[in-house]
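Let us work through a complete example step by step.
Step 1: write down the sequence.
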Amino acid sequence: MTPSPFHGIFSSLTSDALPVQAEQEPVQEAIVHPTGTQPGQIAVDIYEFDAYYIIRAPIAGVKLCDIDIEVDDKVLTISGVRNPADDIPKDQYYLQECFWGNFERSITLPISIDPKKVKATFSKDSILKVIIPKEEKVKIVRISEG
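Step 2: predict the structure and record it as C-alpha cells.
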C-alpha cells in the first residue's frame, strides 16, 4: 500500500486529546458550543478520485449563499454561518448539542491549488463537494551541449 499524500498533514483527535470530565459533573448537563469569537468546525471527508482531490462536507441547516470557499496556496478554507430557523430562548433548552453560528474549516493539501480550477457543488441534501484538480507534475529534462 502506498503512503497517502495527506499522511501527517491532518491532526487527528485522539482519546488523549479529549477533555476529561469530572465524575461529579451531572450527565444531563447541556453541551454549550462557543458562539463568540471562536468559530465552530464542520466535519469533512477527503479522498482522491482519478485526477482530483474531493472534499465532501455535510452542512445541514445552511444555505448556499451562507458558504464561502477561500484558497491560499495549499490551504482551502470553508467558512460560513448556520442560523437557527427558530428563535428559542437559551433557558428553554434541556440539551443543546447542535452548533449554530459561524463555522470554519481549513484543509492543507499536498499541492498548490489554482483557485480558478476549483469547482464546488451543494446538493439538495446539504452536502458540499469541493473538487480540486491534482497538480500536473512537471518533468525536468536536462539539456546537454553536443
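Step 3: interpret the result. The first strand starts at residue 45 and ends at 49.
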